[in-house]
Write a structure and sequence with these properties.
Elements (H helix, E strand, L loop, with lengths): L8 E5 L4 H12 L3 E5 L9 H11 L3 E4 L6 H6 L1 H22 L2 E7 L22 H16 L3 E6 L2 E2 L6 H10 L4 E4 L3 E3 L1 E2 H13 L5 E4 L5 E3 H12 L5 E4 L1 H4 L8 E2 L4 H5 L8 H11 L14
Parallel strand pairs: 1-2, 1-3, 3-4, 4-5, 5-10, 6-9, 7-12, 8-13
Antiparallel strand pairs: 8-11
Helix pairs in contact: 1-7, 4-5, 6-8, 8-11
Amino acid sequence: MGQSAAGARILLTGAAGLLGQAVQAVAAQHGLALCARPRAALDISDAAAVAACLEQAQPTVVLNAAAYTDVDGAERAAPAAVRANGLGPAVLAAACAAHGLRLLHVSTDHVFDGRPGQPCRETDPTAPRSVYGASKECGEQWVQRLCPAHYVVRTAGLFGEGGRSFVTAILARARAGQPLRVVADQCCQRTYARDLAAACLELATGDAAFGTYHVTNQGAATWYSFAQEVLQAAGLTVPLTAVSSAAWGAAAWRPEWSVLDGSKWAATGQRPLRPVAAALAEHLARTAGRWVEGEEGDDA
């Protein structure tokens, strides 16, 4: 953890989500002082509730893992997505600025337009093409404008224990003996929640310059190729068919190319996150026999 980690008092929002649970686990391992608030206990878009929580918790750092994460659902429920992903971060950012607090806000690769090319850098222009991506871009912008002491951490393909992800969906269906159809024309990275949690805690309590960072595990692949890797690592064999995005017919647009450049994170002196294969192996070991799908919602 960062040099000031021992003295940090961290308020975690979105504590019931996949990332929130991972942050709590990693913080406990390092003996960090953490006050965890799930969506049910703190609506970050409620300014009065946020003010009361800050008064009670007296944090030095706020780590925002609260988000509306249902990408397809956001197309049907845009107001809810914008409230959670846009208004909520704005309220937190204003409150943190008023109290002189650091704010680390978690964002997504979906803020980019997904055109194939070089890995996306933090300084590249954003151009989201879905309600989810636009709502997350809105949240980023409010955090950047309102809170000088901020970190925005963009990540991609999150998976881990305690929540719904591509990995849990693939394993649940495969263990039930169901054939799989997986999109083969979208390329992105994946990120293990515990690795991201450790990186966020390191950044939020360390000495790195404020700003935006891209943080993912190493390795990029199509969803189809990653599904093959997941099945092989779990020792499962079921029929697996590659399909196009058009044939899949999801409600929301998703990036064709969504690879994030992590060199700025490495330049802080932090070790790059490990290859995704090693992270996947740990995840499988931690969840052996427990492939239960959760629901996407208001905690990342």
